[in-house]
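Office hours follow-up: a student asked to see two folded examples consecutively, so here they are.
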Amino acid sequence: MSGETNGIDLPMSGQPSLLEELPSRLDDMHELETSNTELSDANERLLAAMEELQSLNVALQSVNDALHGMNIELRGKLEGLRHTTVDVELMLNGVDVGAVLLNARLEVRNFNATAARFMALGTEDIGKSLGRVRHDLGSVPIMELCRQALVTGDPIERIFTASSGESIAFRAREVGLESADPGLMLTFTELRSTLPQWESELA
């Protein structure tokens, strides 16, 4: 019959034979092997990157734990400093001596509550020059005495009479601040004749 030869099917006219398709199939296999190799290399790089990220995560966790511990420690120290500051403020305000802290430029750095009895001081005066603060000490040259204490480094002590007639003991002495320049501590004490009263109470 036409198209048959001893029972063997012959390729139809116009269709490529297996031998003709073999080079193309070999090229496809080579491309697949190349792609597989590239994918394998990319997978290894991803695994290495994941290991590095895991190591970095462990390191960051350690740093975070250390920072957390440091934060707890600093908060404890801050709370202790807060209590100390409150205690010091209570002690300074509890004594019957006015205290004013000045920096090297003779600007008000701090003061206690008693100082307001001798000078018109308020929180708005912090950072203001002492020469701009009103006081009840008459014509006392406080600024000149403060400059002298800074220049010589020796304490300056004077007794003044306030406009109310009270005797005030004034003292300016150099103190060390955290900066390179020294500051001054001014103290004002009202002098009272209390010994006779004590004697009458003890009699």
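And the second, which I mentioned at the end of office hours:
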Amino acid sequence: MSRSQLVVYAAVAVALLLVGARAIRGEEAAEPSFAAASSGPREASFSVGDAGGDLVVHVAGAVRRPGVYRMPAGSRVDDAVRRAGGPAPRAQLEAINLAARLADGQQVVVPELLPGGGAVAVGAGEEGPISLGTATVEQLEEIEGIGPVTAGDIVEFRDEHGGLSSIDQLDQVPGIGPATMESLRARLQP
């Protein structure tokens, strides 16, 4: 091999190493940095290189830092509650399905335990979808086509199954037909 060929091969090898190193650094920068997000007070403002797969959720009720948070796709209600600083001292976590997957635009309302033992969903009464995990019989009765018996059946079904992760699961409740399912989809969220 001649000296000029050796110089050309060496230059090509160095160029490939530089391109490879730059590509590796670019991949690391595009990955989410959850450790940095959870280590400081600016928790709600972390960013991910590819925001296309992220969800934006509103966490309200009995949590330490209610607010709007960006969560990675596939996150669960439990992740959102932790992201909002965890449950407040009087939070009633048993009333919501912590294992349910989050949906973009969802509101997660953590109810607060009342002194008499009941729970109230802070922020209840606002217009918009009702959380399936915390909906009361009275709230369900407000939905068109849902009477007191069906509302009670829905709450009983939810309690028997340890919560629900999808509105489609309500199709298994007796007395709920296709028209009622459409009303439920419009007024409820998982």
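Two things to take away from it. DSSP finds six helices and seven strands in the chain. The radius of gyration is 25 Å.
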